[in-house]
Design a protein that fits this description.
This protein has 100 residues and is of the alpha+beta class. 36% of the residues lie in helices and 13% in strands. A hairpin with a 5-residue loop joins strand 1 and strand 2.
C-alpha cells in the first residue's frame, strides 16, 4: 500500500496551489487505481466530486463505511460532547444531543 499512498500524496502535491484551503470545509477525492499482475498500482483518474450513489449492496456498504470514516475524521473530538461520530451512531435512540 505504500505505492498507493505515494501516488495519492504526489498527485495532491502536484496541484496543491489550486486546491481550496479553507479550514471550515473539506473535500473528498476519488482516486481510481488499477493494479497490474505484480500488484503495481497505476493511476487512472482522480475525481473531484466522486459519486456516492450505489448500484449493489456491496457498493452501498463500501460507501456507507467511507462516509462514516470521513465523519470520524472531520468532526472534531470535542464536538458536541467529546464523542466520535461512530460513538454517536451506536448510541441508544434519544441519547444523541447536538448543542448545549
Amino acid at each position: 500500500f505504500n505505492n498507493i499512498k505515494f501516488i495519492i500524496v504526489q498527485s495532491l502535491r502536484s496541484c496543491q496551489n489550486v486546491i481550496n484551503n479553507d479550514k471550515h470545509c473539506f473535500e473528498l477525492y476519488g482516486f481510481d487505481l488499477l493494479l497490474d499482475g505484480q500488484l503495481k498500482p497505476w493511476l487512472i483518474e482522480i475525481n473531484a466530486s466522486p459519486s456516492l450513489s450505489y448500484t449493489t449492496p456491496n457498493d452501498r456498504h463500501l460507501k456507507t463505511e467511507l462516509l462514516r470514516d470521513v465523519f470520524d475524521i472531520v468532526i472534531p473530538p470535542e464536538f458536541p460532547d467529546g464523542k466520535t461520530y461512530r460513538e454517536h451512531r451506536i448510541a441508544p435512540p434519544g441519547e444523541l444531543r447536538l448543542g448545549g
